[in-house]
Amino acid sequence: MAEDEILVVGGAGYIGSHMCKYLRRRGYRPITLDNLVCGHRAAVQWGPLIEGDIGDRAVLDRIFTGYDIKGVLHFAAYTSVPESVADPLKYYRNNVASTVCLLQAMVAHGVRPLIFSSSCATYGDAGGKALTETHPQQPATPYGRTKWMVEQMLDDFGAAYGIRAVSLRYFNAAGADPDGRIGEDHRPETHLIPIILQTALGQREFLSIYGEDYPTRDGTCVRDYIHVEDLAQAHHLALVRLLDGGAGGKYNLGNGDGFTVREVLDRARKITGETIPARIEARRPGDVPMLIGACEKAMSELGWRPEFCDIDAIIQTAWDWHRRHPDGFADRDKGGAAG
Ligand code: UDP
Q1: Ligand 1 mean position, distance from CA 257 (Å)
Q2: Residue 338 placed within a domain
């Protein structure tokens, strides 16, 4: 029997490439569409890569007619909160306007199931509590607003055109493929764990800790780190439900537990055995003190069972990747697609 073909937009990126690996293991054929602005050619190892943009209707039409696409997983977005504050146009153009183009093409070609990478950045201030899906959505940054706008569009497109969408609101994606074949490689890197590990490798002089006067247990921001493989598991479960004709929905994906910047740094020092120098600096624009997810809904409705619940296991898989690939995908990207 032919494998179901799934379009993974942003499949060359960090979470998208882990998703392609997971899909392949589960018997699907991931078809990656990626403009390689953030993604890596060498991260596409489990199916074909079409180099192009989700804002390009012609390329979408070619894919939807050339392949028998059963559903779409949408990871193609810019993801830096501080960059979205400095350059909101870039975020609205790509994350919102280009998504409209993708949705138009899906409607035109009769492809209804969609899993959308949303974010906990869509929520308003939780006042220190774990966020449930019913918490008011009042995003504090342009990045969060782009994700919230798409979620609302998906509701409207569901009612009007039958698009069936699951929006997955990630907390802080982290870690790497336990087999070590792919990992996190953003350029520039802005995320905490890879920056800490690059400092451990001596690629950076020190870690900048952005603010120590937040109302948290040690003054640094608290985040809920969730392993990228556990995110992939949740997407797969949501996809199976949609392909079986099930309804869409909105789900938090996190571990339900928060760690401060200093706590993550301490754990990383133990795991790497390195000093990892750090300096306190000014707060970073757009940061909120605390983001922790209550994720029971994904567990009860999707049957999600995260496996990397321990922050040490998350940091360890990331460290294994960074240590083995200190330059990320740089060398392999030059040599063309791997695998
Ligand atoms: N952070 C930091 N130094 C860095 C990068 C991040 O102190 O070099 C902090 C950041 O201010 C936030 C937390 O680490 O409080 C997580 O940031 P990240 O960019 O990884 O994810 P975000 O929560 O912004 O999506």
Answers
A1: 16
A2: no
- 152: which residues sit within 8 A by CB, 6+ positions away? none
Range of the domain at 36: 5-186+220-257+286-324
Which ligand 1 atom sits closest to the C-alpha of 81? 24
User: What does pTM read for this prediction?
Assistant: 0.96
Number of H helices, E strands in the chain: 12, 14
Cα of 137 from ligand 1 centre, angstroms: 21
Structural domains of the chain, count: 1
- Whole-angstrom Cα Rg for the chain: 19
pLDDT tens, residue by residue, 71-89: 999 999 999 888 999 999 9
In a domain, 163, yes or no: yes
Q: Terminus-to-terminus CA distance in the chain, angstroms?
A: 23
Instruction: Give the distance (Å) from ligand 1 centre to CA of residue 288.
Output: 10
Asked if residue 193 belongs to a domain, the reply is no
Residue 143 among the catalytic residues: yes
pLDDT at 336: 47
pLDDT digit string (tens) for 205-257? Answer: 999 999 999 999 999 999 999 999 999 999 999 999 999 999 999 999 999 99
**CA of 67 relative to ligand 1 center, distance in Å:** 39
Residue 203 lies in a domain: no
- Which residue is listed with tokens 């490439």? 17
Measuring CA to CA, how many Å separate 135 from each of 8, 70, 210, 216? 29, 32, 26, 20
Q: What CATH number did the domain enclosing 305 receive? A: 3.40.50.720
In a mutational test of the pocket of ligand 1, which residue from 123, 206, 284, 290 has the highest number of ligand atoms less than 8 Å from its CB? Answer: 284
Question: Does the CB atom of residue 226 touch ligand 1 within 6 A?
Answer: no
Catalytic annotation, pick one of 14, 123, 143, 214: 143
Closest residue by Cα to atom 14, ligand 1, is 192
